[in-house]
């Protein structure tokens, strides 16, 4: 189910965590790991833009700083070679891609040829725990493919939890989580957060029936309170080590960055897969 995994490579701890997560997942599914080193065009243009007169506003962008480009390319090649060796040492196939552009745009384009995109919580510009990198935020918000956001530390991903509210992307998350559990041979925990006991029982019964149809063992839990905090507490108490959630809630309630998805990423340290 994850035959090709795309990983963005830079020098950040987040990228290292993403590569580790991709290798661990890749071992389960014999995946090809695609390593993408994107030279940020905005970084190349920054020295020129900083010295440009104000009257140039609205004109076409200045050409990238050609003196900085080769330096960044050489750096990217070193990072990718080291990452490639890690993938080869794990016994997995590796492909490499180099590009220059807007980082998230290039990664979204490349992700069209992969089953999932794997990223870290933070990139090179964000290092504080609990923060999210700007590129991660944009990818989670926009990617049509599942996005695996690596945990703060390596995780065996043997105790997955899926957040289910009956909505379209929540149902997609349940389907992906069920496929994962069936392939790996582990049970799935389905949680619903809400205040209506009757509605919760009906939704969780529907989830149980779906898992049964997929021959996946599952258990269900009704949680109450703030969505992200309730799920985070459940993860901490039960020792769950992977969360799967839809990109937005039922009736298209926002699961985009700024709402539950961002809160989940901020309040938990385990890997999170966001599905559309």
Quick summary of this structure?
With 276 residues, the chain is α/β, with parallel strands linked by helices. The chain has helices at 13-29, 41-51, 68-89, 103-111, 134-142, 168-184, 197-213, 227-238, 260-267, and strands at 4-8, 32-40, 93-101, 116-119, 147-149, 160-163, 188-193, 218-223, 242-246, 272-275. The protein has 9 helices and 10 strands.
3D structure, described in words:
There is one protein chain. This protein has 276 residues and is α/β, with parallel strands linked by helices. 44% of the residues lie in helices and 20% in strands. The chain has nine helices and ten strands. It has helices spanning 13-29, 41-51, 68-89, 103-111, 134-142, 168-184, 197-213, 227-238, 260-267; strands at 4-8, 32-40, 93-101, 116-119, 147-149, 160-163, 188-193, 218-223, 242-246, 272-275. It has a ten-stranded mixed β-sheet with strand order 3-2-1-4-5-10-9-6-7-8, with helices on both faces. Helix 7 links the parallel strand 7 (188-193) and strand 8. Helix 4 runs parallel beside helix 5 and helix 8 runs parallel beside helix 9 (260-267). The longest helix is centred in the first third of the chain and has 22 residues, at 68-89. The radius of gyration is 20 Å and the shape is globular. The two termini are 16 Å apart. The relative contact order is 0.14.
């Amino acid at each position: 189910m994850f035959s090709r995994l795309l990983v963005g490579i830079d020098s950040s701890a987040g990228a290292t965590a993403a590569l580790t997560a991709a290798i661990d997942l890749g071992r389960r599914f014999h995946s090809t790991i695609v390593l993408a080193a994107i030279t940020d065009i905005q970084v190349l243009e920054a020295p020129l833009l900083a010295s440009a007169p104000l009257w140039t506003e609205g004109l076409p962008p200045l050409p990238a700083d050609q003196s900085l480009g080769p330096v960044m390319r050489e750096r990217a090649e070193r990072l990718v070679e080291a990452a490639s060796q890690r993938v080869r040492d794990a016994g997995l196939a590796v492909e490499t891609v180099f590009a220059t552009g807007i980082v998230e745009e290039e990664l979204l384009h490349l992700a069209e040829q992969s089953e999932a995109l794997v990223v870290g919580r933070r990139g090179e510009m964000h290092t504080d725990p609990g923060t999210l990198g700007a590129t991660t935020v944009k990818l989670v918000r926009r990617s049509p493919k599942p996005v695996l956001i690596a945990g703060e530390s390596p995780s065996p991903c043997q105790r997955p939890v899926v957040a289910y509210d009956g909505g379209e992307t929540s149902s997609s998350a349940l389907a992906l989580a069920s496929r994962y559990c069936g392939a790996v041979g582990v049970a799935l925990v389905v949680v619903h957060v809400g205040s209506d006991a009757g509605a919760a029982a009906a939704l969780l019964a529907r989830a149980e029936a779906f898992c049964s149809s997929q021959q996946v063992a599952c258990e269900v839990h009704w949680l109450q309170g703030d969505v992200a905090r309730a799920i985070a507490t459940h993860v901490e108490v039960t020792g769950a080590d992977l969360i799967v959630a839809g990109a937005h809630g039922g009736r298209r309630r926002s699961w985009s960055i700024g709402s539950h998805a961002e809160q989940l990423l901020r309040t938990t340290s385990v890997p999170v897969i966001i599905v559309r």
